[in-house]
Amino acid sequence: MPDKVKQTWLILSHCFNMDGRAASLTITDKLPFLAEAGVEPIILSGVSGDRDKKFKHYQLIPWGPAGFRFDMRHVIASHLGRGFVYQILVGLMGLLLAPFIAVERLLLGWQNQWSWSLPATLRSLWLIWKYNPTVLYTTGGAYSAHLAGYWIKRLTGIKWIVEVHDPMVKPGRVPTTRDEKINGYIEGLICRFADLAWWFTEGALKGARQRHPELGDRGVVILPGVAKPSVSGSYKRGEQMIISHFGSLSDTRSLQPVVKAVHTLLEHNPEIRSKLRVHIYGGTIDRLAKLEIQKYGLEDVFISFGRLERSEVTGMSGREQVLARMFQADCLLLVHGTISDCSEYIPSKLYEYLWTGRPVIALTYQNPQLDQLILERNGYVASGDNSGQILAALTAAYSDWKEDHLPQPGLPAIGVDQAVHSILKLVR
Fold first, then answer.
1. What pTM, to 2 d.p., does this model score?
2. Which helix (H) or strand (E) holds 84?
3. Which label site among 18, 167, 239, 275 has the fewest CB atoms less than 10 Å from its CB?
């Protein structure tokens, strides 16, 4: 880590201190390393996460009705859970706000969180006057932080550094909707006015530079990594091979190809049915995969555990329980999707997987950088749209498990410290 820089940074992130959320972990995991290097962070965030007790942290409610409803649903759930009272309160709030949300969408058509940029800008101006930070750091996720960052940069001239989580313009697509257009517009503002901007993949940076050549060498790639888990676990081979998937699933990131491959594998080797299980954490099995599971009668093979919440018995948070189960899995399953975004996107869950030392079975799509990260750590890679490759990867992994020689990663995990080191070096 570079020598202590002794600076105050103002950090804007709508999503912050939300248990297990990638958009939150990307910044919260960096704070201890920034503080260790002499940076005093002042955080401005939404209200959907917990207030930080270690650093100066201000929480703001979006001024728009859609953003207000979005954030308050999280606040209500965190205090009351998602039971009957939650349903009543959220329903009433939605009913009262519906006319105003309709007007907002009719006039703008932007994502829910856009209006958080308004109070964030005003509060930031006050914080800059009070604390005189040397750097404004916006991160997202939601583009509201970047929109506020642009306004603050233009009003104050403060050094503005930007962390772009996901591609703001879909690869190979001209923005058509109003929300897509504002995303593209804000990407342009970042490329023109940010003093430093970084993306998480080589493909995302390449796309941004093609659209905005003026970005030049102010744009770089920094792998985000994740902090070393606070919870560890030990692996013990059991009577069944457990392949575990963690994270959300959808029509565009579906387990359907895995279900089909497992069906084919069991058709060829029916005797291994009792030996193979796929565990799913973090949400429900996606619609397309459910249909395939029902079609082939694989309900005993694919088992969903849903989203793990804080345990009253052990006191472990949802994230801590998830991490413990990652260490216990035989193999970890990564589903990338098969849409154009995949060429510019690496699932943040991969970095958590790498800390466990368990082999990764990855279904990727048009992303050589992601393939390399997994292959150089002795994982199994298949193209998400190639059923033959998926079957081959699952067959190879099962064979290695059966012979009790699943591979070990040849390289260390990717921590947050390397990202912070790169950021500090570039800012200085």
1. 0.86
2. helix 84-107
3. 239
